[in-house]
Amino acid sequence: MSKVCFNSSQFLSFIVIYLIIFLIITFVLFIYFKNVKQKVFVKNNISRIQEPERTPEPERTQEPERIQERIQERIPERTYIGPRDYQNSAIQVGFIYNNQDRYALFQTRISNKYYYHVIDDTRFGIRIIINSKKNEQLFDGDDVYIPELNSSFKIKLYDYVGNRYIPYI
């Protein structure tokens, strides 16, 4: 007679345990794949919903005059730049020069008064104030005398008005 590792009752119990384990694993895999398919379906639907319809861009063959007209249509009659102007900040507007020296010219505008200064070329960059009559605006070609430098200079202004924020464009 051949020798058996376990008897029939033990064999039956092992088969039942293996069947239960097999069913549990099958159930878990079924639930997992069902959820994965639902997630993929949900992701695909979300991406379809969020994807905007693509419309062809219109050709931009308008003349520059028409573009300017369209911009002007969006701007109201009175545009108040107000405090968004270059208030209280110095900007370089040009330079002053004579036969020997050249210095950058900076302007600070506060309401309707203009304050000018230059910065010397030493390593400390000392600010030298330029006094104008009643803090009026200086123009290209004006002559100014700076007592600190003991010399007279001509003004050369850049042809740059500056960018200003207009919220209606």
Description:
- This protein has 169 residues and is α+β, with helices and mostly antiparallel strands.
- The chain has 2 domains: 7-50; 82-157, no CATH class.
- 32% of the residues lie in helices and 22% in strands.
- The protein contains 2 helices and 6 strands; from the N terminus they run H-H-E-E-E-E-E-E.
- It has helices spanning 8-50, 64-74; strands at residues 91-97, 102-110, 113-119, 127-130, 143-146, 151-157.
- It has a 6-stranded antiparallel sheet with strand order 4-3-2-1-6-5, with no helix packed on it.
Roughly how many Å is the radius of gyration?
Answer: 41 Å
The number of distinct structural domains comes to 2
Q: Structural class from helices and strands? A: alpha+beta
Strand content: 15-25%
